[in-house]
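G.,

No rush on this.
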Amino acid sequence: MTPLNAVTEETRLVARMIEFPADGVSCATDSCHEGSSLVYVLEGKLQLDAGGMQEVLDTGDCACMESEMALAWSAAGKHRCRILAVTTAGPSAEG
């Protein structure tokens, strides 16, 4: 996970580039914590799992999410996946 902006007490949005390894290694993450988030697929395919719902996003796809549920996400297929994730800053955003 690569942070793309500095996080301070006044930060309202946090941008990160996240890379998922190939072969569907699943990652439960707090990068899309409770609240609003935007995910843009830079490379590969992203598998999103939330509350029993599964969705695959391709390169160039974008998703806006407002949810109280935790997400599990991974690269779909045999290639790595890189995404840009922009989330609202939470108490765990710093650091």
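When you get to it, here's the other one too:
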Amino acid sequence: MRFRDPVTGFIYPEEWVSACRDPDALGLARSGRAVLTSSGRVLMRGYTTGTTAAAACKAAILSLNGEIKSVQVTVPAGLTIDIPVSGRDGRAVCHKYAGDYPGDVTAGIGFVAEYQPGEGDISLVAGEGIGRFSRATPRYAKGEPAISPPARDCILRSIEEGTGMAGTDGARIILSIPDGEFIAEKTLNPVIGITGGISVLGTTGLVEPWDDHMCDSVMERVIRSEKMVLTTGRIGMQYSRMLFPDHDVILIGGKIKQALSHAAGDVILCGLPGLVLRYADPGILEGTGYVTVEELSADPSFGDRLTRAVHLFHARHPGVRVVIFDRAGNILGDFK
């Protein structure tokens, strides 16, 4: 009865599976397109901005040979998904599907891709509505489009697949998001120095359905586990599994306080610095001149600030081990 979520690796307990009376919904959970909760309810995963962009780009190329209504995209998590699009004569539109994530401000936003001959090469041009960095960061240069490496890889792979299927000699794809600048005002982009549009992101290519039901299921996993790693994001999950293969790795997002209040036994909080250190020390950025913890991490004072933040954390949560690493998996601090 039990089965493994192909996206997170979590093995759903038999009682969760038994609680679901809809075979079709269970099939979606088995495929990774949805998430099974402790109540038996199945919630759909959505598509990231990166997946949506990849679908539009691939469809633009395929539409050179006729009207296109859907394309297959292999997302970074390894799943291949059929995505609705509207493509004709080298131009395609794909609207972002949010699944059962109620707080997605980019839900329904349209991504437009336009094909130009590539003369043997494949390239992506970030157009209107895609944000750009207003200053240099540890990972991006000033003026660079806000497209994460996993999302860019997915988009370029989809473009390459499209050229192979359409028989074209390369492709230059201009990607735009007509409402991107407007929608960006509802995101954190203006705060972190990304201007002119939204970010194109997607570590797995899928958006988790973080509604109240999903939160309840996550907290039930925390309660059930006697040996766990609580982590805040997908990169955290990846390295946590490598570092602690004998622990349950549980993705909690920003719900650190709630998860710790339910946790008992052997507990490790593990992840990138951002969410963890802002929880440990809400004032960590005050007086630094930085707007993100990632920027602060490149400052020579970061080591001392990290130690102080974890000291404050341990005053509230004694006995919880804290492991902080960067995006390359280098451990920045291990506090027991």
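The domain at 225-335 is CATH 3.40.50.10720 (Rossmann fold). The two ends are 38 Å apart (CA to CA).

Enjoy the weekend,
O.
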